[in-house]
């Protein structure tokens, strides 16, 4: 069967590379009056093994909202870092946003749910945008950062691991684009905050290979 164009996957080559691989160890974090433990503080490493549950050796404290097969890896881009450094007026090292992998770029086109990225031996599939939380704000030492991150609409993406293996700093990245019928990260991100989403848009978002947590949130907002 020949799929219509909007349902086909295409391979596209941009000059994308893996800039940084970042692993977190458990560290204490103060969020307002609450003391907690977090893995958001990441340190770069030259190489890592990635399983279907994420980077081996990376600590995930908040397993209710992070981690698991559908959010095994969090990815951000150097282009996003450049934008933030200009906005904030300070240098930000890779891993500052708690991402596991820092790509040089996501390519010329917006990332869609279902986009796949071949990195070293690993094949990733984008499943959801990152929704900011108080942990990120505390990491950035800015109580207003959740609002700033939402307004910036540069969420990066969570990914499931379709093929496990080893990645190394400097690995080239190949993008295998999702069908054009699937929503972009930006569309999912904005719908998340829509207080009165249209049922048709919710149903459309749910046609994509979303992370299960995001799928549950959108499905719960459908009218009975």
Automatic annotation (TrEMBL):
Q: Name one Pfam family in it.
A: MOSC
Matches recorded under PROSITE patterns = MOSC
Concerning SUPFAM superfamilies, the annotation shows: PK beta-barrel domain-like
The highest taxon in the source lineage is Bacteria
Q: Where is the MOSC domain?
A: 42-176
Protein name, per record: MOSC domain-containing protein
Organism, scientific name:
Meiothermus taiwanensis WR-220
């Amino acid at each position: 069967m020949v799929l219509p164009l909007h349902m086909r996957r295409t391979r596209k080559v941009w000059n994308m590379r893996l800039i940084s691989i970042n692993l977190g160890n458990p560290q204490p974090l103060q969020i307002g009056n609450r003391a907690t433990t977090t893995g958001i503080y990441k340190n770069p490493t030259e190489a890592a093994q990635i399983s279907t549950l994420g980077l081996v050796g990376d600590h995930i404290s908040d397993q209710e909202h992070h981690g698991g097969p559908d959010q095994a890896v969090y990815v951000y881009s150097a282009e996003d870092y450049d934008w933030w450094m200009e906005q904030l007026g300070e240098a930000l090292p890779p891993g500052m946003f708690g991402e596991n992998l820092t790509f040089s770029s996501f390519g010329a086109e917006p990332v869609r749910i279902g986009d796949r990225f071949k990195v070293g031996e690993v094949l990733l599939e984008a499943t959801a945008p990152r929704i900011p939380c108080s942990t990120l704000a505390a990491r950035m030492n800015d109580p207003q950062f959740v609002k700033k991150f939402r307004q910036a609409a540069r969420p990066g993406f969570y990914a499931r691991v379709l093929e496990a293996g080893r990645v190394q700093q400097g690995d080239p990245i190949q993008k295998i684009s999702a069908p054009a019928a699937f929503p972009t990260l930006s569309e999912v991100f904005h719908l998340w905050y829509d207080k009165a989403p249209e049922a048709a848009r919710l149903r459309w978002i749910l046609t994509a290979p979303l992370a299960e947590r995001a799928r549950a949130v959108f499905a719960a907002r459908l009218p009975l």
